[in-house]
Amino acid sequence: MTTLPVADADAVAATQEAIAAASLSFSLKVLTVNIHKGFTFFNRKFILHELREAVRTVGADVVFLQEVTGTHARHESKVANYPTAPHYEFLADSIWPQFAYGRNAVYTNGHHGNAVLSKFPIVSFENRDVSISGPERRGLLHCVLQIPGRETTVHAICVHLGLAEAHRVKQLHMLCDMVRNEIPASAPVIAAGDFNDWRRRAHNLLEEGAGMHEVFVQANGKAARTFPARFPLLQLDRIYVRNAIGHAPVVLPLKPWSHLSDHAPLAAEIEL
Q1: Would the pLDDT of 11 be above 60?
Q2: Which of 3-7, 75-79, 105-109, 155-159 has the highest mean pLDDT?
Q3: Given the DSSP bridges, would you call strands 189-194 and 213-214 parallel, antiparallel or unpaired?
Q4: Are 31 and 265 in contact, with CB atoms under 8 Å apart?
Q5: Are 59 and 90 in contact (CB under 8 A)?
């Protein structure tokens, strides 16, 4: 029997290790968008049906939604083609069999909040109230996803932070505490949504407080501009990850998204 040279043996071992690592990795596509309760900018037109088709074309495995209507009695009676089902169920339909909703704002005619749509089982979820003071209600929707064939669960957190900077900073610290203290250190985490962080303070806070970094910042050196959707100037929407092997932004077309909400969507491929 011929013995391989040392260098060749090392190369074989490295190749086998790479093959083993590749077999353990898993890639998923995520999408986040603030859907503005199904209306266009300034509430001029109800476009939830168009939005559903646009969301489907992305082919995302997990969708993070903000400003999702659970129910609205007045719109149900006055807006044409208004769904009788909650909007997260209408959007999920037959594509995403699993979904979770976190009710944040409650008013006379109904309520709205955050939602996560998933092609993978959601084994548990919690909507954490992170409202600070006043009428503005905010929440962190934390879903635990079970990926078939993998022991480690993935933690998906749908985020919609406050308009006031002082409130956002406190809410970012709450997010850090959740990730650091309530989620296993080895578990993959994806936190996505509308951070309203026009001052760009979230990057350092989440890096230092929770070991998370933003997908578009890592790829392009800066966060994506998402607001207003027609002429994006502000970097409000983000996708942060922890314990990801790799990730890359997905480029989405300007149309039809530019008229489907006041926020442009973000998508990314994440390897775990």
Answers
A1: no
A2: 155-159
A3: unpaired
A4: yes
A5: no
What letters, b where the CB count within 10 A reaches 16 and e where it falls short, cover 41-65?
beeeebbbeebbebbeebebbbbbb
| Cis ω for the linkage preceding 135 (within 30 of 0) | no
Q: Which residues contact 263 (CB under 8 A, 6 or more apart)?
A: 33, 34, 36, 194, 226, 227, 228, 229, 236, 237
Q: Output the six-digit token pair for 81.
A: 């083609």
As a whole number, mean pLDDT of residues 210-225 equals: 97
Tell me the per-residue pLDDT of 247-270, one tens digit each, with 9 for 90 and over: 999 999 888 998 898 899 999 999
Rounded Cα distance between 162 and 140, Å, is 11
- Give the pLDDT confidence score for residue 207 in this predicted structure: 98
Q: Is 158 left (phi over 0), alpha (psi -120 to 50) or beta?
A: beta
- Sheet architecture: strand order including 213-214: 122-129, 139-145, 154-160, 189-194, 237-242, 213-214
Of 9, 93, 98, 2, nearest in space to 49 by CA:
93
> What percent of the chain has a predicted confidence (pLDDT) above 70?
89
Which helix H or strand E contains 171, and what residues bound it?
A: helix 165-182
Tokens of 73: 């009695």
Preceding omega of 97 cis (within 30 degrees of 0): no
Strands 62-72 and 27-34: parallel
